[in-house]
């Protein structure tokens, strides 16, 4: 494997570095030192610069959705739920969690963006999912208003 290919693979294992390369905010030499790529640091930094030049700075997704908040979510054993993933079902009126629901033009990349923004805002996510024009993020009740603002800024209209 070439040094350039090894560098690209190492970057893809670190999504934050990939995003920073896309945004053009990377100290290439410092980043090269952190990667587990065999080769001279300057050569790895050069490979990073070239990879960054190949990346587009266009948005990963476009979305427009109505965002609402649903209180009182909790785990249930069976039946329908606001969010169902595997054997985990969350339904309104069954607990103390808060669900932020975006309905409209939403996609998995939008969910990834929302989760990244919530992580940056130090808001813990209990569950999340996206499908068929609906994105749901479940947080603790006290984090509901902040999570609502985050989701609205990412996908709201």
Distance between the termini: 46 Å
Strand order of the largest sheet: 2-3-1-4-6-5
Q: What is the radius of gyration?
A: 19 Å
Overall shape: it is: elongated
Which ranges are low-confidence, i.e. pLDDT below 50, for 5 or more consecutive residues? none
> What would the average pLDDT be, to the nearest integer?
90
Percent of residues in beta strands:
25-35%
Query: Roughly how much helix do the residues carry, as a percent range?
Result: 40-55%
SSE run: HHHHEEEEHEEH
By DSSP, the count of extended strands is 6
Instruction: Quickly give the structural class.
Output: alpha+beta
Number of helices: 6
| Biggest sheet overview | 6 strands, antiparallel
How would you characterize the overall build of this protein?
It is a single chain. With 157 residues, this protein is α+β, with helices and mostly antiparallel strands. Helix content is 41%, strand content 27%. The chain has 6 helices and 6 strands; from the N terminus they run ααααββββαββα. It has a 6-stranded antiparallel beta sheet, covered by helices on one side. Helix 1 (3-12) packs across helix 4, helix 3 packs across helix 4 and helix 5 (108-120) packs across helix 6. It is elongated, with a radius of gyration of 19 Å. It starts with a helix and ends with a helix. The model has no long low-confidence stretch (mean pLDDT 90).
């Amino acid at each position: 494997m070439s040094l350039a290919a090894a560098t690209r693979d190492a970057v893809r294992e670190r999504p934050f570095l990939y995003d920073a390369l896309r945004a053009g905010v990377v100290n290439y030499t410092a980043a090269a030192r952190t990667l587990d790529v065999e080769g001279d640091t300057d050569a790895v930094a050069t490979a990073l610069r070239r990879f960054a030049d190949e990346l587009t700075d266009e948005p990963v997704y476009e979305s427009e959705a109505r965002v609402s908040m649903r209180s009182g979510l909790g785990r249930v054993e069976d039946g329908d739920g606001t969010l169902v993933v595997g054997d985990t079902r969350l339904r309104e009126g069954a607990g103390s969690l808060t669900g932020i629901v975006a309905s409209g033009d939403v996609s998995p990349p939008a969910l990834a963006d929302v989760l990244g923004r919530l992580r940056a805002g130090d808001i813990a996510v209990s569950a999340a999912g996206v499908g068929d024009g609906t994105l749901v993020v479940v947080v603790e009740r006290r984090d509901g208003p902040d999570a609502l603002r985050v989701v609205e800024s990412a996908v709201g209209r």
